[in-house]
Amino acid sequence: MTELTPLIRILEESYADVLTMEKTQFFSQGQYRLKRAENVNMRTRNRWNLEQENNTWKVVDPNYTHLRDEVTRMRMEIHPIDSRTGGVPKPANTVAARARYNQHKCLPAELIPENISPDGELVPDLSNVNLVAAWTIVDGHATITLHKIIDAKKLKSCLDIPLLGNREDQSKIRYEAAPENEMLIPNLIDEETKHSEKKTEAENKG
Prior knowledge:
Blueprint: H1 6-22, H2 29-51, E1 57-59, E2 66-69, E3 75-80, H3 95-100, E4 114-116, E5 122-124, E6 130-138, E7 141-151, E8 156-163, H4 167-171, H5 191-205
Parallel strand pairs: 3-6
Antiparallel strand pairs: 1-2, 2-3, 4-5, 6-7, 7-8
Region (Disordered): 187-206
């Protein structure tokens, strides 16, 4: 996962760009919130394409930040956390999206099939793995956690990997299968949700 570490910086920069753009337009805060995640996603995708040409993770969607690793063939799509629950976002109401949220449980290393990489090396074949990168921004700082979700209805995950912005720190993480509990990310609420709640409280008091 060390190759994904630039995603933290790129996401933060994209978010900052979107906030700056909003200052030049005239929409309600509700309209901004509806479009903000989509705009951040698109800018993140475009930045990754431009800045990470030599990265093994390549963009595979014309509109969204959906990536695939050329070495292991693993896929990843990035989505904001559910602002109402602070948890992993639900899948879109499509067959393909639900399929990505219903995967086989995590296998021990010895049972993972192998394949030949483009460089001719023997590598794990993770072509059937789809990760969901759930992100939030708090005070301008991004938090991203990668999940392998195995139950679309209950949002159960068998793997949770915090994504760090530093390759050295990321390489030190030892990945272990997560308890198959409902995946929630407590205490992570994005900026717009906090600001919206404060605004609502002020209006109610007024």
